[in-house]
Amino acid sequence: MSTVVTWPRTEVARWAGGLYLAYVVANVLASRVGRIGLSDDAALLAAVTDHELAFRLGLVAATGSALLFVLTAWSVYVLLRGVNEQLALLLLVLNAVGVAVQCASYLPLLALLGRGGAHGLGEAQLDGVAMDLIATHHAGFVTAQVFFSAWLFPLGWLVLRSGFLPRALGWLLLLDGLAVLFWFLQAFLLPEHPKLSYPSWAIGFIAEVGFALWLVVRGTSQQRHEPVAPVSGDPLGGAGPLHQHHLAGDGDHQPARRLLIGDELLHE
Fold first, then answer.
1. Residue 115 pLDDT more than 90?
2. Which residue of 10, 156, 196, 220 pairs with 174 in a disulfide if CB–CB is 3.0 to 4.6 A?
3. Distance between the two ends of the chain, CA-based, in angstroms?
4. H/E stretch holding 203
5. In sequence order, which ranges of 119-227 are alpha helices (DSSP H)?
6. What is the DSSP letter of 229?
């Protein structure tokens, strides 16, 4: 006799939306407090030089946002894997790789905090080293956008095909994927024209914050206690081939037909 507790789909959706919103807030704090993210190189250097405590707080917020983004992707994977597990896994992998690249881009910023220990260098030389480190951070940060663009395409497609989330959100997320890709290309090919990407940032804010708010406020269109859809062969509570055989069998296997009720599975 065993009991397997499921996770109601609406609860998963609200956790995913809450984590997504927390990620957005952490990103805004990193940008506004520590000038990490969308600020220019000169503003970031000024933050390190003149407001070190604020810069350190921003770096903590940026690192925390990375963790929140991975958790967001995992919860979205749990929510949407019943639509297509392969694509749901793909979005999780793309997100995780993007987060890893972005975290690596923060390492030069940590080196900036130790610039005072560089003996034998003049102020101008120190500033030159600092700008090189900031440029390295910026290149890594922009590179991460390739993966953050890519993860939005399977996410948008899964939302479109889900049947329990608005199709308009799926189209917005696909458009956001193109917008982030445009930002990446602009940053590398036309870095002197950042204003070209302003519409891309607006699209991203509308699409991703709108998606997160919908998940938090509305959940899904299914009943509140409907569990996350099982996945064939899933070892974490899904109905694998052996379980499917029991569900379809007769005689001694009949009690298995009563497994799924409400938001938990009954005893076998």
1. no
2. 156
3. 5
4. helix 198-217
5. 123-150, 152-162, 167-189, 198-217
6. P
Backbone angles phi, psi at 114, to 5 degrees: -100, 10
Written as one letter, the residue type at 238 is: G
| CA angle, residues 104, 194, 144, in degrees to nearest 5 | 20
What per-residue confidence (pLDDT) applies to 133? 87
* Residues 213 and 186 sit within 8 Å (Cβ to Cβ): no
Q: Say if residues 75 and 12 touch (Cβ distance below 8 Å).
A: yes
Confidence of residue 219 (pLDDT cuts 50, 70, 90): confident
**Tens digit of pLDDT for each residue in 82-106?**
999 999 999 999 999 999 999 999 9
169-179 pLDDT, tens digit each: 999 999 999 99
pLDDT score recorded for residue 37: 80
Find where tokens 């206690």 sit. Answer: 225
Across-strand partners of 8?
227
255, HSE (Cβ side, Cα atoms, 13 Å): 7
Residue 180: closest CA among 141, 137, 142, 145: 145
Q: Closest Cα partner for 226 from 182, 261, 189, 175?
A: 261
CA angle in degrees (0–180, nearest 5) for 107-66-30 = 75
Nearby residues of 25 by Cβ (< 8 Å), 6 or more positions away = none
